[in-house]
Amino acid sequence: MINDDRRTRRVIINSDVKNEADDQFAVVHALLSPTLDVRGIIPAHFGTHRIADSSTASREELDLLLRLLDLEHEVPTADGAPHALVDEQTPIDSAGARLIIEEARRPDAGPLFIAFLGPLTDMASALLLAPDIAETDTTVIWIGGPPYGDLVSMGSWPEFNLKNDIASANVVFDSGIRLWQVPSNIYRLVNVGYAELEARVEPHGELGRYLAQQVVDFNTEYHRVAIESRSLGDSPAIGLMLEPFSGVMRRQGGVRFTADGHYELADPTREILVVENIDVRFLLEDIFAKIAKHQRG
Questions:
Q1: Taking Cα atoms as reference points, which of 266, 239, 69 lies closest to residue 169?
Q2: Tens digit of pLDDT for each residue in 24-44?
Q3: Which of 80, 187, 198, 239 has its CA 20 to 30 A from that of 273?
Q4: What transmembrane ranges does the database entry give (predicted)?
C-alpha cells in the first residue's frame, strides 16, 4: 500500500538522546514517519550523574542516528541548553530555545507539536524569553513526572526527566501552554524484549543492528539486576503526534512540583491533559514496520 496523503503535521523533537536507549527509537520513528514534518531536533542535556557534558553526548548521538538514516544534511538541528535552569525566572538562551520560538510564532504554518523526551529546560527557556508563545497553537508533549494520586511506578525518586530540571517543569506547567503529560507509570509500559528486538529490529541493516544492540549494552552497564527487556518509554510522544487518539487522556487541574519532585496544587484555572493509557500495539508495530521499510529502501 502506498501512502499518498501529502498532509503533514509540524513537529519539533527535544531529546536527551544519549541518556538511555529509548530516545533513539523515538527519534528514528519520528524521522521515518511521512506525516510528520520535523522542523528540527534539539539535543538536550541529562544532568551530570553519568557524564559531565551530557548535552554534547546527546549531540554526538543525534549525529550518529542521522548518519545511520542517511539524513546527515537534511534535518535541521539546534543545540539546547547545556544544563538545567538556575531558577524559575532565568532562561538559558540557546539555538534550541530560539528554534521553538521561531516555529511557535509562525502564524500561517498551522499547529505545532513539540515532543520533550527529557527535561523541559528548552521549553521553559523559550517561554521565559517569549511569553507570548503560550498563546499560540502549540502543544507540548512531555514524557515525565511521577504517577498521580496513590499510583506507584517503580524507579528512582524524583522521576528522572523531572529531576533533571524541576524549575523548568514549573515554568511550563505555570505558563498555560497546551500540555499533554505522559507520566512514568504510563511510559514504562512500552516494554520490548531482547527476543523481539532480535527478530524485528536487528535484521534491518546497520540501523537495526545499532538500535537493538545499544539496548542490550545500556542494560548491561547500568541495570542492577538481570534483565532481558527495556521500555521504549519516550516513544509515546511520537505515537501521540502521529495519532492523538492512540492515547486515553484525562483533564488535570493546575499542579506544579515541590523541590523533591512531588505534585502540589497550583492555579486551578490551568488545565493539562494527562495520558492514562497508550496503544502499545500500534506504537511498537509502527516503529518496527518503518525500520524494516527503511532498510528495504
A1: 266
A2: 999 999 999 999 999 999 999
A3: 80
A4: none
Q: Peptide bond before 158: cis, by omega within 30 degrees of 0?
A: yes
What is the percent of the chain with per-residue pLDDT over 70, rounded to a whole number? 97
Helix axes 280-296 and 23-31, enclosed angle (nearest 10): 60
The residue-averaged pLDDT of 165-194 equals: 98
Is the Cβ–Cβ distance between 167 and 85 less than 8 Å? yes
Structural domains in the chain, sorted by start? 9-296 (3.90.245.10)
- Per-residue H/E/C for 185-236: HHHCCCEEEHHHHHHHCCCCHHHHHHHHHHHHHHHHHHCCCCCCEEECCCHH
Amino acid (one-letter) located at 114? I
- Asked whether the beta carbons of 147 and 275 are under 8 A apart, the reply is no
Alpha carbons 255 and 264: distance in angstroms, whole number: 6
User: How many CA atoms does the CB half-sphere of 296 hold within 13 Å?
Assistant: 7
Strand partners, 14: 42, 116
Output b/e per residue, 151-185; b: 16+ Cβ within 10 A. Answer: eebeeeebbbbbbbbbbbbbbbbbbbbbbbbbbbb
pLDDT for residue 158: 87
| pLDDT at 196 (0 to 100) | 98
Q: Are 38 and 13 in contact (CB under 8 A)?
A: yes
The three-state secondary structure class of 79 is coil
How many other β-carbons are positioned within 10 Å of the β-carbon of residue 206? 10
**Half-sphere exposure in the Cβ direction for 185 (13 Å, CA):** 12
Taking 90 as the threshold, does the pLDDT of residue 273 lie above it?
yes
Torsion of CA 232, 233, 239, 241, to 10 degrees: -130
**For 38, phi and psi rounded to 5 degrees?**
-75, 105
pLDDT of residue 49: 85
